[in-house]
Design a protein that fits this description.
243 residues; alpha+beta; outer membrane lipoprotein receptor (LolB), chain A; eleven-stranded antiparallel β-sheet; 4 helices; 23% helix; globular
């Protein structure tokens, strides 16, 4: 009877061990498949709009809030990213079939980037837009920018959670900037992204960089997205105000 008891107790232990290993592998696989599904969703969109907010938390208790909106049409090509910084500054990126353009309220300067050398309009605007320029636009123009917003290293599925009433996958991983010549990583940060379980649209993203003890360095970007809406051409019109 004692030997039978030992045999019976061992079986659940073996089953439990196998289940844990299998679950871990499944979670890792699902995280990447969800990220890829989201990338595909954006790269295949015919049109897109959103309203968003960026909350930057730093120091012991400091906080800045910025807002932005995006409008996009694939054919004919149109894009308008309108970023408003706390304090009144404004930065705009817009595109037509012939070129990309930027305008910055601080300098009053408009810069034009004719085809085919138009990618700097987005690449060089990341700092001025608190990171908004290389988030959704990098997914909409995935071939040009590699969908860098969702280029998470070592992604893991961390469960599900509601964001603004939408049920979302929560995926955690690591983001960084890489020097092309040396592949050296800089600006390494933890990233958490919430992806809608139904539409695979991104609802929220948090990026956390290292900070001194008692300090914070965290950026929270929230989106209210809409896929494939009908957009009036007037939405893409932007004329920089006179100096």
């Amino acid at each position: 009877m004692i030997m039978c008891t030992k045999v019976v107790n061992l079986k659940p232990m073996l089953v439990l061990s196998t289940t844990v290993i299998f679950a871990g592998a499944t979670l890792g696989q699902n995280a990447e498949s969800i990220l890829q599904k989201s990338r595909d969703t954006y790269s295949q969109m015919k049109s897109y709009t959103d309203n968003g907010q960026i909350v930057y938390e730093y120091g012991t208790s400091s906080e800045d809030k910025h807002t932005f909106s995006t409008a996009f049409n694939r054919s004919p090509r149109h894009l308008l990213l309108d970023f408003h910084k706390q304090g009144g500054d404004n930065y705009v990126i817009w595109a037509d079939p012939d070129a990309f353009h930027t305008w910055w309220k601080t300098t009053g300067q408009q810069t034009d980037y004719p085809n085919p050398n138009n990618t700097p309009a987005i690449n060089l605007s990341d700092y001025s837009t608190q990171g908004a320029a290389l988030k959704i636009p990098s997914l909409l123009y995935a071939k040009a920018f590699g969908a860098v917003m969702l280029a998470l290293h070592d992604p893991e599925l961390d469960g599900t959670e509601d964001v603004g009433g939408h049920h979302c996958h929560r995926i955690v991983g690591r983001l960084s900037d890489v020097y092309a010549a040396t592949q050296h990583e800089v600006n390494i940060r933890k990233a958490t992204v919430w992806i809608d379980t139904d539409s695979f649209l991104i609802r929220k993203m948090i990026e956390e960089s290292k900070a001194s003890p008692g300090q914070r360095n965290r950026k929270i970007t929230s989106f209210e997205p809409q896929a494939n809406p009908n957009i009036d051409d007037a939405k893409f019109k932007f004329t920089p105000p006179s100096s």
